[in-house]
Write a structure and sequence with these properties.
Layout (H helix, E strand, L loop, with lengths): L5 H15 L10 H19 L8 H18 L1
Helix pairs in contact: 1-3, 2-3
Amino acid sequence: MTELSPAAQAVLNAVTLKRYDVPYYACPKSIDQIKSDVAAALRAAADQVLPGSPAMIPSLLMVRYRLLAIATEIEA
């Protein structure tokens, strides 16, 4: 498994600890499906909460980009 940023690790750990009571790196082989689901949920949240309109406040736009970057990292 590739090295993940602390943010991506925190997101995956939140899901796997809740579901399996283990950190993501000790999760069963279903981790690929979990990663795909988590990435999709992050993208949907970014689209719903921070739609990325050109008039968006720059700091909020950065939050959107960071959520999308975490989703991409998790799915890679």
